[in-house]
Design a protein that fits this description.
Strand content: 25-35%
Number of strands: 8
Largest sheet: 8 strands, antiparallel
Shape: globular
Distance between the termini: 11 Å
Length: 167
């Protein structure tokens, strides 16, 4: 787990909300404080779907909402002349990318042991911080996936020329 301070908040927000850079993520939850505080639960809502739709993996491939689907809603809540008072997003890397992260290092951990690679994005009105995390299905002694995820996030940001400093 690492904490990264984003240097250019406006540039990062342009990438997060105005481009497809983060479309490889799913939204677990969001909290956006502007003139009101808006809470978004990214879990798919069972009551909304018919039984057939709920079982259709093409229509609903993930337990969480894809960032690319909810991104315009978040953008609409944040856009305007005034900066939000605060926001917090909990994003999970789409599970199909887990294997490629694990292949980057020497680990016996398999993709089915990793529940998710998580990215917490927190803005407090002045500072934007990213905190990485890894969720497992069970306790594991091998923490190599954590290190690999931290490296992948640094590379992801650097490739997109998003400046950061480690906290």
């Amino acid at each position: 787990m690492i904490a990264l301070k984003i240097i250019n908040v406006k540039q990062f927000m342009g990438r997060l909300l105005g481009a497809d850079d983060f479309d490889g993520f799913l939204l677990e939850e969001a909290s956006i404080s502007t003139y009101n505080t808006f809470q978004i639960d990214g879990h798919q809502n069972r009551a909304f779907y018919t039984s057939e739709e709920w079982e259709d993996r093409e229509l609903r491939p993930y337990a969480f909402t894809q960032w690319k689907v909810i991104r315009p809603v978040c953008f609409d809540l944040i856009k305007g002349r005034r900066t939000p008072a605060a926001f917090h997003f909990v994003l999970h890397l789409i599970p199909e990318y887990t294997a490629s992260i694990l292949k980057r290092g020497d680990t016996s951990v398999t993709p089915d042991q990793v529940r998710g690679f998580v990215l917490n994005i927190r803005y407090d009105g002045q500072t934007l911080t990213l905190i990485t995390g890894t969720s497992y299905h069970t306790f594991l002694m091998d923490k190599t996936p954590d290190v690999l995820w931290d490296q992948a996030v640094r590379q992801f940001l650097s490739k997109r020329e998003i400046s950061f400093e480690e906290l």
